[in-house]
Predict the 3D structure of the following.
Amino acid sequence: MKLNDLIHLLKNAAQQGTEKALAESGQLPDQLTKAEAYRLYGRGNVDRWISEGLIGHATPKVAHSRKCLDRARLEAIAASSNRITYLPAAER
């Protein structure tokens, strides 16, 4: 195993452990508003994932009219998306 592979594995383990602990303690909500998803993952990405049917709107758990997205599903889609690694048009 190369050093970069080990670093990547340890980084992912620490991140997943932190997210699990925050979710279990109630500090990390299980749903995001569309605006929060836009800030985290970019408007174009979120809109594309919705239009491709990868993620849909979840029913909000609190009484507000904002459209919510499932955080776990959104994180899984973002992690599996490799478009972030693509070069911008100016650098191709």
Remarks:
- The first helix runs from residue 3 to 25.
